[in-house]
Amino acid sequence: MAISPIESSVRTPGSADSACVALAECSRQASRDDLLMSEPEALQFVLDVERASKIVDQLQIRAARLAEDLVASAQQESGPGETAVRGASTSLGFRDCADFLRATLGISRAEARRRLDLAEVLLPTVSPTGAPVPPRLETLGAAAGA
Questions:
Q1: Per-residue model confidence as pLDDT tens digits over 70-129
Q2: Stated pTM of the model
Q3: Do 123 and 68 contact (CB within 8 A), yes or no?
Q4: Is residue 1 situated within a structural domain?
Q5: Which domain holds residue 119?
Q6: Using an 8 Å Cβ cutoff, are 64 and 101 in contact?
Q7: Angle of CA points 18, 23, 26, to nearest 5°
Q8: Other C-beta atoms within 10 Å of 83: how many?
């Protein structure tokens, strides 16, 4: 997975911002202390990092769903002669949601598709009538969100 800087926008800090600050501080502290950790401390650090990684992965899937909803909203605003994808391209400047995520987040198209595909099967949706629709893989979705 490629790592690239993301430009931050000016907005009110939220819980995700607080988590990012805490993770950055954890990274700085670990780089200073990793050679001084005892074996049990090092093992606990490895376990904690993996737990944080799983939480971040779940948040990335939820964010992909939010982006998909944004693109779908742009598609609904497309003119009468436009196709839905063309409407999203006109409104947002992207062919589809995977391209939007790729360009906005600096991730590969394959990673964007992975997140969107997981969101599709793991997260609940809302029907056109407004009724909640459970995820296709409800049990797996519940386990992934736990």
A1: 877 776 665 554 444 444 444 667 788 899 899 989 999 999 999 999 999 999 888 888
A2: 0.71
A3: no
A4: no
A5: 38-145
A6: yes
A7: 130
A8: 10
Inter-axis angle of helices 97-105 and 109-122, nearest 10: 120
Per-residue pLDDT of 20-31, as tens digits, reads 888 888 888 888
Q: Is residue 138 part of a domain?
A: yes
Taking only Cα atoms into account, the Rg of the chain, rounded to an integer number of angstroms, comes to 19
Write out the two tokens for 40: 């049990």
Evaluate whether residue 47 is within a structural domain: yes
Token pair of 15 as six digits: 């819980």
When divided into structural domains, the chain yields a total of: 1
Q: Distance between alpha carbon 39 and the CA centroid of its chain, in Å?
A: 33
CA distances from 6 to 3, 100, 102, 130 (A): 9, 14, 12, 34
What is the C-alpha to C-alpha distance for residues 53 and 59, in angstroms, rounded to an integer? 10
Q: For residue 34, which amino acid is it?
A: D
The span from the CA of 133 to the CA of 61, in Å, is: 17
